[in-house]
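Retro notes (design track)

What went well: tokenization of the new backbones is finally stable.
What didn't: we kept losing track of which sequence belonged to which structure.
Fix going forward: every design gets posted as structure first, then sequence, in one message. First example under the new rule, 382 residues:
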């Protein structure tokens, strides 16, 4: 990939805008954040992704100044912020709980922080009007929070966080209350705002698709640690562990042993069935480090597997099986196939041809063949 100013994390000499160094947070005997380090660059829309209790919100609150680290340090724009109170940090935070003033109108809620900062009345009016238009609430400025739906209140909170144009915007599950259409639309609006203003965003989410759509890079957290940090495509296509592969999207896992290799492919055997598979490799890939006799796990994403009722002659790897479950999802269908080697594979396929009636082209209990190409799998060392 070409390294340029749009991807500072790819440049070894780039200066981080946010630098987290050996940060930990303990609550009694419980360690919520465990000795993590991270660099975030100016203009990034950085995603903190993980399940409940993984430490991502605690990390966000330490960045905001609402929690004091047990150890470690935080730098923002070159200045140490570890002991700086929240109101003196160049950050703003959007709370998951909305935290709106019930007695104020939408306009006054959004304008509150600007008035506290002494911004002129005409500028406040213009900025509030602009942000209301962005979040599709231009006709709701005179209403109070109790006259709004949950999704609308969430958008007011978002507008209030954005209107002050902070150097760093911290968002804790910012789109959780929005419906699917508005959530998708707001994702692109957030990206457009970041591009226009140059604000660095740090977004906490448990939604993998949201993190993949929004983020320039993602840090996947579990048990207070970073499991993998990278661009969305890097994490999805080259997961570092089975945990990452299973947490980001769906994955099939096939235990194999390397039996032969050359410069372009490796041969792998599923020992219980003696079935042999091949995978592409090159000198830079993890597969190239495997040695003969070494055990590994083949990771296959469901959408990278083909399925048909007849043999797939164009696939280097193929298995016969029987469909045990079908889920019709409109634009695609998901199949769970019990294969000849005793492992059930999940396969997704686009519904490219309009279905006639209620039947499926491939249905329950159909005998099928599934297949994949050499370059479709990732091998993880055991």
């Amino acid at each position: 990939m070409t390294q340029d100013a749009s991807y500072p994390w790819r440049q070894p000499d780039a200066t981080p805008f946010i630098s987290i160094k050996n940060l930990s947070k303990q609550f009694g005997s419980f360690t919520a954040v465990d000795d993590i380090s991270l660099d975030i660059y100016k203009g990034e829309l950085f995603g903190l992704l993980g399940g409940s209790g993984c430490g991502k919100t605690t990390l966000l609150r330490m960045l905001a100044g609402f929690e004091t680290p047990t150890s470690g340090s935080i730098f923002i724009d070159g200045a140490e912020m570890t002991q700086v109170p929240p109101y003196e940090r160049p950050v703003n935070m959007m709370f998951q709980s909305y935290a709106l003033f019930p007695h104020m109108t939408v306009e006054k809620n959004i304008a509150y922080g600007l008035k506290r900062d002494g911004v002129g009345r005409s500028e406040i009016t213009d900025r509030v009007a602009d942000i209301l238009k962005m979040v599709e609430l231009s006709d709701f400025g005179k209403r109070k929070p109790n006259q709004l739906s949950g999704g609308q209140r969430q958008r007011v909170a978002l507008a209030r966080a954005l209107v002050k144009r902070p150097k760093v915007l911290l968002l804790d599950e910012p789109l959780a209350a929005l419906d699917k259409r508005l959530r998708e639309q707001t994702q692109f609006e957030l990206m457009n705002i970041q591009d226009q203003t140059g604000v660095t965003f740090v977004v906490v989410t448990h939604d993998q698709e949201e993190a993949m759509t929004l983020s320039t890079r993602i840090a996947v957290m579990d048990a207070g640690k970073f499991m993998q940090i990278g661009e969305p495509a890097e994490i999805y296509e080259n997961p570092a562990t089975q945990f990452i592969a299973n947490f980001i999207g769906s994955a099939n896992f096939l235990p194999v042993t390397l039996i032969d290799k050359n410069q372009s492919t490796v041969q792998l055997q599923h020992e219980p069935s003696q079935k042999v598979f091949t995978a592409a490799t090159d000198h830079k890939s993890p597969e190239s480090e495997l040695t003969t006799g070494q055990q590994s796990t083949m990771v296959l994403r469901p959408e990278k597997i083909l399925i048909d009722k007849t043999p797939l002659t164009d696939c280097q790897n193929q298995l016969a099986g029987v469909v045990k479950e079908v889920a019709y999802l409109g634009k695609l269908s998901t199949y769970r196939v019990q294969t000849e080697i005793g492992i059930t594979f999940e396969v997704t396929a686009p519904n490219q041809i309009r279905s006639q009636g209620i039947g499926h082209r491939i249905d329950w209990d159909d005998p099928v063949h599934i297949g994949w190409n050499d370059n479709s799998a990732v091998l993880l060392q055991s």
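Added context from the reviewer: Residues 250-381 form a domain with the OB fold (Dihydrolipoamide Acetyltransferase, E2P) fold (CATH 2.40.50.100).
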